[in-house]
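PROTEIN DATA CARD
Card holder: 40S ribosomal protein S19
Chain length: 83
Origin: Salix koriyanagi
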Amino acid sequence: MARKIYLRGGLGVGAFRRIYGGSQRNGSRPPHFCKSSGSVARHILQQLQNMNIIDVDPKGGRRITSSGQRDLDQVAGRIVIAP
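Structure generated from the sequence above:
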């Protein structure tokens, strides 16, 4: 989720509900798209805020902090180097 905020920015709970949503099975009726639960997304975003990886964007949603961007860049650098 931190990577998605890093790439797109301005994502909130509602956006993650759409991203992680899927087909709702309605028994004998046809299936339709349904958003996922917001509880899991909300708690993950709160944990990332407590770790100072993201913070609230005044324009709406969340954005990556400079320390969070540095951490994600370090992880990406380690993945590229790995054999």
